[in-house]
Amino acid sequence: MEKITISDITKRFADKTVLDRFSLEIEKGSVFCLMGASGCGKTTLIRILTGLEKADEGEVKGIDLNRISFVFQEDRLIDHLSALSNAILPLKSDAASKKAGMEALALLGLKGEEKKRAGKLSGGMARRVSIARAMLAQADIIFMDEPFKGLDKDTKEKTIAFVKKYAEGKTLIVVTHSASEADLLGGKIFKMPYANGDFDKKSENM
Hints:
Blueprint: E1 3-13, E2 16-27, E3 31-35, H1 42-49, E4 57-61, E5 68-71, H2 83-87, H3 95-107, H4 123-136, E6 141-145, H5 153-166, E7 171-175, H6 179-185, E8 188-191
Parallel strand pairs: 3-7, 3-8, 5-6, 6-7
Antiparallel strand pairs: 1-2, 1-4
Helix pairs in contact: 3-4
């Protein structure tokens, strides 16, 4: 099976080393959950994998940056556009895209909210629209950085079911602090150490 290969990645910010000769392999077509305490480099790692940060040393192989999508910790919606327009932003502007967007939003519990401007959506609604946008994009690898933060239990479970459905056959890489989210997503769980190799045993939900 094809793999994403991360080899001896080092990343420093000023005098702080966040990643120190970090290596990892991720099987393509799988669900992969990155867990670990705040400050251990989870977000920095996926920013390097998506080309948003440059590693000081090391290399990454197996990622086509033209075929990825990303759910950031912030929703990053366009406030004056509707929920539907935001969801289908990566797609062609045609009837098929609109239909796909309507179906995705309905599955996420947003039926009837499609025309509402993103700036008027609640935090939980905006979060789901940003997830819909990433899942609808023509991507082979989907990166998600704490995507379910702020969702109540029932909404979170429905949203995770949606993500699993739309990510089928793709590579899904998720940063989460929650063991329950990782369990619902399935797949492999990797607990990241700090750059010095230590694990924080008090990490939330670990």
